[in-house]
Request: fold
Amino acid sequence: MNDQLSDHLSPETVAALTDGELTGDDLSRVSQHLATCAACTTRALHESLLQRSAARAGQRYAAPESLEGRMLRAIALQQDAQASAKESSQPASVAPPRRAAWGRSSVWAGALAAALLVSTSAFVAHDLALRSANSSALVAETVDEHIAAMAAATPQVISTDRHTVKPWFQGKLPFSFDLPAALPPGVTLDGANLVQLDGAPTAQLLFSIGKHHASVFLRQRSAAWSASEATITSAERNGFHVEGFRTAELNVLAVSDADPSHLHDLALALQQAQPAE
Amino acid sequence: MPLLPALYNTARWLTREPTEAEDLVQETIVKALAGFAAFEPGTNFKAWIFRILRNTYLTSRTGLAARRTVALEDEIEATGTPAAAMDLATPEVEMLRLSDRAALQHAMEQLSPPMLEVVLLCDVEEMKYREIAQVLEVPIGTVMSRIARARAALRQHLTRPALTSARLRVQEGGAPR
Reply:
């Protein structure tokens, strides 16, 4: 830092001190100098004041209210482009502005949206990476549980009656949930299982959507679960579609190889059956 | 702070125009989505997306105009104008004007883009030097010297706002207007 060329701290050293970038021997040396040099101490104080004043003055432009919606639409357009690209197996293009080909799953789009709008910058990198990893693991575990249920001979409770299935869980789960009075056309309730998902007790509701099977996993909403599931709005894995939503009390994941729109209708019916947030 | 307001604030400072700032943020996000393959989980997400913002800005209309300034900036760094040579401000005047938010914002507006961006990243976004180095794709030593020189320039614009701004822009690496 060239401090040895003069009796005083270099501007770079004063800046680094102000910005908390000095450690170890550098910090000790600078501290010793400040203890005996009023001029450099004054400079450091001024630098600190300038830094804090610039930080305040720099927070000048509030994003227009419309910007958040515009960005979410841009992200949604990319998701649509991804879906179109999958269907046509041709590169997608969306305008405007210039678009590049979609590179990753829609899980990432949700994670990016969360980071842009919700997460705090200080921990966003670690948090985002963690969420992505957790989300992927959760999607994998959800699909595995669904496949295991299809492979099993019979569910733990077999009933097409919501008044039988719901009470079966009483005392088995630390939360309750409601089933819709009417399911979407072509959807029937087959039964339910009590499973462990991500180490927590989970209600697995089994449905048929036409000739396809679907599982809906309901868990108590918690901080840990929310952090990972918050990023899952929809995902694909091994030919299965996964859709997630949250209510005031629950985190819910629905999985099926049926048409995603039919799974969405089922998820929506379940979501609307729960008490409002 | 959520990233979207931070990206917009930085974009607005750099472009100085609201519509262009919104377009810049949108293009940044679209590029981030498309280029996620290049993001390594566990690395710094904020630095990564700000680097996309900055690179997108540099290829924008306003950014291209500023590129000449960046080139000048690099020349000055290479020839080594020491920050100490610019550290001429009168502390009393500086102290008085620091409490004047508008005066400080005006002083920031006088900074050349390379100086302004380090002030935004370091002071406003509170990034570490290592993160700023990632955004600007320069060595940490360059970040250190640029921050010191940006603060010195800011101090001078603050204490001698009108008469010397054009000369200072040349001195700090900016093109005179």
The mean pLDDT of chain B is 79. The CA atoms of residues 129 and 140 of chain B lie 6 Å apart.
